[in-house]
Fold this protein.
Amino acid sequence: MVSRVIPVDPFDLVIFGGTGDLAKRKILPGLYRRFLAGQIPSDSAIIGAARADMDDAGFRDLARAAIVEFVAADRIDDTVLAAFIERLSYVSIDAQGSGGWSALKKKMRKNTVRAFYFSVAPSLFGDLAERLHGHGIADEDSRIVVEKPFGRDLASARELNAVLARHFAEGQIYRIDHYLGKETVQNLMAVRFANILFEPLWKSEYVDHVQITVAETVGVDGRGAYYDKSGAMRDMVQNHMMQLLCLIAMEPPYHFDPDAVRDEKLKVIRALDPVLPEDIVRGQYLAGSGQGGYRDHAGDAASRTESYIALKVNISNWRWKGTPFYLRTGKRLRARTSEIAITFREPPHSIFDDAEGWRENVLVIRLQPNEGMNLMVMIKEPGPGGMRLTQVPLDMSFATVLGEEGEDIPDAYERLIMDVIRGNQTLFMRGDEVEAAWAWTDPIIEGWEKRGDRPRGYDPGSSGPEDALMLMHRDGRRWREIRE
């Protein structure tokens, strides 16, 4: 199988926060890989912008070091890297003042796509947007990319949307969620809507329940003060996991069109039931394995912020009424894994005597690691001795199926940045979508704050608090094992 690389138009991309961690880990390495693949025209320009006093040569050295560190060694081509580095330049800029803006304007060219990546704190979004227009750098065709968090509640999200809307139309704003750029997440839509096999079964009549798991082995050490202001609900559920839920649950859009897709996702969010207190489990990892616990890392011995959360979510619409969605995410868990598991109902009648051998059909979509999908089906166990049943996977690992191409699947940031240049907003969140997600999330957070709920402690390297197991057990179900 040969993948097609379709070049984008020449562009000027300004990375505000160009010397920051995200730029070094993801943005610059991702752009290099797209340049290596032949997707970025050689006459494109990438401009770093930050407060640091640096010249072009300094920024190029920074970019080269980042690429060498974060791109696989077998993908480093010295000739290509040198050509890519030549596309880079730098402007020292004051986001809240006047310094550097005239120099940036001089670097912008005519007849190219202009994109501005706000890889900075949300508090600077308004300042950047205002100055881009005030200095005549952005025009009606320019695009801006904004990173999460998109507020910390509904009020702040509305304020942030209003600030951006004063200077840019909704069609120019790209709210990036890297989970939507993952190959497997997009394949979820292909599996659903390009195959007649699954769509007739994709409803409560045939689906028993859905599990969405995002587990991490790392804690919050080093960024505990920041994380303690958000917690797992704000950091993961309100955005990443909400997007995954929407892609699973949404109705087929009339066309694979940005607003058509986002209209259907918005309908799902608005159909979410309020979550009952008994359907929420929150936790904090304890000290262990020679490392401190969450409260040590947060620097607050009385912290009530969750590093783990599990919820039972219900959707009140014709397709999903009666099928629960179980969401869980946490730090310092047993393994690093992200997956969606759609568990189908058992047959209404079994003709086989080996009832104990029966297991549910499960479609598992693996986001990380080892992106791919497998479908668990029942077959006859090989050998004589009667009809004994066993469960086996029909497996599709991208690395296996696509060969070398599967091993070199573009990073989510690579794909999403190229979509920005193309002007394709399908995989980006719309303003009303963000606000609807916060409108559902806020009462949940306010509820546990009013009740004074305390997160349950759990051991590092475990699957989370014991109470989370009971969340499933009382429904006669169980969580899938967390493993790589």
The chain has a mean pLDDT of 90. The chain has two domains: 11-147, 180-409+430-473. The domain at 11-147 is CATH 3.40.50.720 (Rossmann fold).
